[in-house]
Design brief:
By secondary structure, the chain is mainly α. The protein has helices spanning 2-23, 26-44, 50-70, 78-99, 109-113.
Length: 115
């Protein structure tokens, strides 16, 4: 009976540790998704020019690739998470700055051609 309880307790511990390791990357994935929507919203309402969108999407892809690279071993360390959070913070500030500058996309036809 005690061996059975020991096996169950160890399985619960292993599953809990595995689940907590994968959950640590979810907030970063959510932030990437939100930033992607912010970029698309800037396009839709004409706040971003074509060159600004290219720049933002390039940074977005770099962060996404780096996240994928960090998660290749199945674990995201505290250092890796800090690196990604800093890059996401910088990218968020850049999105805000480019959406609120005085440049606007006067011809939004380019958006339909590339989507």
């Amino acid at each position: 009976m005690q061996t059975r309880q020991l096996i169950i307790a160890s399985l619960v511990l292993i599953v809990g540790l595995a689940w907590s390791g994968t959950a640590s990357a979810d907030p970063l994935k959510k932030r990437l998704k939100i930033q992607h929507h912010r970029i698309n919203h800037g396009i839709a309402i004409g706040e971003l020019t074509y060159k600004e969108v290219r720049k933002l999407r390039r940074y977005h892809r770099k962060i996404h690739r780096q996240r994928h690279h960090f998660l290749a071993d199945g674990h995201l360390s505290h250092r890796e998470r800090r690196i990604l959070e800093r890059r996401l913070d910088r990218n968020s500030g850049l999105i805000y700055a480019l959406k609120h500058n005085d440049r606007h996309a006067y011809d939004r036809g380019w958006y339909r051609r590339y989507h």
